[in-house]
Amino acid sequence: MHGSAGLTKEQVAFSEQFQPGGTNRPPNPLVMPEGHAAVNGGCEQCHAVGKPNDDGTIGTCTECHSRHTSSVELARLPSTCAQCHMGPDHSQVEIYSESRHGIMFAAQRTLLNLKADPRTLTTRDMFVPTCATCHMSGINGLKMTHNPSDRLSWYLANQISTHRPNYLQAQINMKQVCTQCHARDRIDRVYSNAELVLNGTNDKITEAKNIMDGLRKDNVLTGPQFTQPIDFLFFDMWHYDGRTSKHGAFMGGADFVQWHGNYELLRKKIELQHQAEELRREHGRR
Ligand code: HEC
Ligand code: HEC
Ligand code: HEC
Ligand code: HEC
Ligand code: HEC
Q1: Comparing C-alpha atoms, which of 241, 161, 262, 163 is closest to residue 206?
Q2: Ligand 1: which atom is nearest the Cα of residue 247?
Q3: Ligand 3 nearest-atom number relative to CA 50
Q4: CB 64: neighbour CB atoms within 10 A?
Q5: Sequence-separated (6 or more) residues with CB below 8 Å from residue 286
Q6: pLDDT in tens, 200-232
Q7: Which residues approach ligand 2 with their CB closer than 6 A?
Q8: What is the pLDDT of residues 115-144, one digit of tens each?
């Protein structure tokens, strides 16, 4: 968000191991036009979760555990993650709530053993997965992790999604969790279908990006980002609709793949083409 500002060289190097280019970059282009008060009251409130502390440790434990009891029960609740993982740019909790997993969680919550010791946690305790089960827990003797990237194979949040460096291992890790409850061939099908949605989304965003790059190249669109209506349209396409379709595809959210994702992408593509033509016509008159 602030890029490498305020971090030491060692901290930047540490972070870059996990997401090359994720920290070693200038501040986000929204920081200046929105102003510091907005950024401190908004972005910072969610993004400080992984920031290094003065004593050398990393992250704010109390965002997921409470201050007084280091509660694993709290950390296993979807509502805990939902403090930050919500809204149109990362609709994970909305997707989860509509998925079979979320529906089952709501119906059977009182039958789950949410307090189970992490070292001996089994699918008898948690027979319905929550965010923590898939991304962090060591269920049935698997390795527990505090690094939520361990089981992720794609950079889904990026404009154009690419493999993560640990693509193969990450899929092995996550599929190991799924197969505690499901047959392997079903899980492979979920992944291959999700990757088809992802590739389709990449194509649509690339098409829109080519239009934007063309406008800049021909000097039709000039000046900083977020100063023209078309900037916002393009940003909404990848940052809201594209992400939503990809997140929906991997986490069981059909409505998010379709109506909140691909339908919006189609609608905005037509609008973007129209605005681009308008801008070129105006440019011709100048
Ligand atoms: C409600 C909490 C919340 C707020 C407010 C918020 N973010 Fe985020 N942001 C997240 C979450 C959660 C993710 C992870 C999304 C994912 O991986 O799907 C994220 C992801 C990102 C990413 C992509 C990950 C990366 O490091 O490349 C960027 C960039 C980002 N946010 C910038 C901002 C900026 C700039 C602001 C303020 C203008 C902001 N965010 C406000 C929660 C928030
Ligand atoms: C993103 C949310 C999140 C954050 C932040 C977080 N934890 Fe956890 N932690 C969890 C989850 C989820 C579990 C339980 C996993 C499971 O289901 O067994 C857990 C489990 C634990 C356990 C129990 C492990 C065991 O073997 O008994 C300890 C201790 C712990 N966390 C300490 C910390 C500390 C210290 C920090 C801060 C440096 C921290 N956590 C930050 C989510 C988080
Ligand atoms: C206080 C806000 C906050 C809470 C609570 C929180 N997260 Fe996050 N999480 C974030 C932000 C911000 C990011 C994006 C960090 C970045 O990439 O710069 C993120 C990223 C992630 C990622 C993607 C990591 C990556 O490599 O792209 C996963 C998975 C994740 N969180 C899972 C969880 C789970 C599971 C919980 C609950 C146990 C949780 N988070 C609770 C703020 C939060
Ligand atoms: C049934 C298992 C499962 C559950 C439950 C689940 N997820 Fe996920 N999640 C996945 C899979 C699979 C992916 C895509 C993994 C990949 O990239 O290979 C994913 C992707 C993500 C990402 C995307 C990171 C990126 O690359 O941008 C975030 C963030 C995330 N999940 C957070 C959550 C949160 C928060 C919840 C609960 C509200 C949740 N997940 C519930 C399986 C799950
Ligand atoms: C702790 C057990 C558990 C884990 C782990 C788990 N699931 Fe599920 N899953 C369930 C339950 C329970 C249901 C609802 C009953 C059913 O339809 O089989 C379900 C339903 C589903 C469905 C919907 C089935 C349908 O017919 O509509 C899909 C798809 C799915 N899971 C995929 C996954 C994927 C992918 C993962 C790993 C990323 C995963 N699950 C991890 C327990 C689990």
Answers
A1: 161
A2: 18
A3: 15
A4: 21
A5: none
A6: 999 999 999 999 999 999 999 999 999 999 999
A7: 49, 57, 59, 61, 63-65, 70, 72, 75-76, 118-119, 121, 132, 136-138, 144, 146
A8: 999 999 999 999 999 999 999 999 999 999
